[in-house]
Amino acid sequence: MSWKWIFIIAILLLVIVFTAQNYDTVQIKFLVWSFKSSSAISIFISLVIGFLIGLLMCIKKD
Domain-by-domain residue ranges, the chain? Predict the structure, then answer.
């Protein structure tokens, strides 16, 4: 297993632990919408969006 995959797995485990510890309800305001959600879900969605943006940027460079 390469160091790149070990690093990715370690970061993923840290994010999972961080997300699991932050389960309080938060209010999210976006433009004119406002709703309540678990902070764990908000963190996970932010992670997925960031990953997808990074993936798209890597694909565009090739």
Answer: 3-61
Q: Decide if 38 contacts 24 (C-beta within 8 A).
A: yes
The mean pLDDT value of the chain amounts to 84
Q: What is the DSSP string of 3-46?
A: HHHHHHHHHHHHHHHHHHH---EEEEEETTEEEEEEHHHHHHHH
Residue 9 in tokens: 């797995």
**Closest by CA position to 43, among listed 8, 12, 5:** 12
CA contacts within 13 A on the Cβ side of 27: 3
**pTM over cut 0.85:** no
